[in-house]
Give the backbone structure.
Amino acid sequence: MPLNPQARDFLARYRPDDGGGLDTLDLAAIREARAADPMAAHRGPLTRIASVRDESAEGVPIRIYRADRGDGPLPVLVSFHGGGWVFGGVRRDDATGRDLALRTGAVVVSAGYRLAPEHPFPAAADDAWTVVRDVFARPAFYQCDGSVAVIGVSAGGNLAAVAAWQARDAGLTLVHQALVTPVLDLAMDSPSYAEFGRGFGLDAAEMAWFARQYAPGADPADPRLSPLRLPSVAGLPPATLVTAEYDVLRDEAERYGERLAAAGVPAEVVRYDGAVHGFPSFPGLFDQAVEARELVARRLREAFGREDAP
């Protein structure tokens, strides 16, 4: 399908970096870029909810959201922000955390994992697993009813997928994994990389730059980097995968869904035609963002057994 008109407008207004400009950034410039968020107005409103508090999970900063005004146990959703393992954080993702708490009825735990290049691989993956493990270890602290799921966008989708297989291997049961335009294979050699590698929001050169910051010299086949390369996906939690038609990451996510289904894991892959990478993060720009958010929230509510939640 042709580009969605909103995606076309987005690309005209926010020209993507071709990777060359990123290569000129030193650490000071990266830190300065982290402090700015030109897309803040499009991430959605900072909706007032019952409780937002900053805590720590074994030293990893977390922000905990609860929309329900009660104090009884609820499902817990651990959320990992995007930003190529280099940018982003719980503060930038604040509107998303509030929105997820409202839509799912769960306690949302937003993970402030360490960022590259100061903290290269596997720091972010280690922090993601630390937060998930801590929810299982301290359910009363999180007001958890025993149901735990993970969600992540882009690089955060990578961390969610990695945490999901680590939980499986540790004997901890996640009820769902929601992977939104996720990074699942650092080989970066799929047909969608060739087709949409330049001019569609997330360029192939930009993705390669992020990989160099996060995992310099690492083996891209390591499943902590590329969950698509897991020897076995059997026994992983049910999954919802959101992909965008015009996204370099599209094929690896859809292939992951195919592998899950072939292994007997319930997996739903929903491609948004005409969309570009990361569109669900910007409900102020894309009507499809609202559609995707509600789809994911509905699947999570079903996994939590809370279909009647708001």
